[in-house]
Amino acid sequence: MASKHELFSRRARRTRYRLRERGQGRPRLSVFRSSKHIYAQVIDDVAGRTLVAASTLDRQLQGKLDKGSDRDAAKSVGRLVAERALAAGIADVVFDRGGYRFHGRVRALAEAAREGGLKF
Length: 120
Fold this sequence. Notes:
Elements: H1 4-22, E1 28-33, E2 38-44, E3 49-55, H2 71-87, E4 94-96, H3 105-115
Parallel strand pairs: 1-4
Antiparallel strand pairs: 1-2, 2-3
Helix pairs in contact: 2-3
């Protein structure tokens, strides 16, 4: 039987494969969550570089958050990444949830990014 890490990476590969097919060249909003923090990046896969990034470790969010591992923190990161992406001229992205289920902190980040003006 496959380990949980192998299953996670398999789900992430499957998700990214579908995004490549349906993304039509749009940048990808990638989410990583750890037990203590949440991170979001807007990545241009063609050029292979990160265009915009935000996380609960950002200086703009440091004093405002009680902890970096709850839905409120994810909402703050989603708003911040949307604000930075719009400032960089990026409005349309593809949401990459990786191997995570679309619920909890991942969903809160996505909804806050949509409210912030990103379209996906």
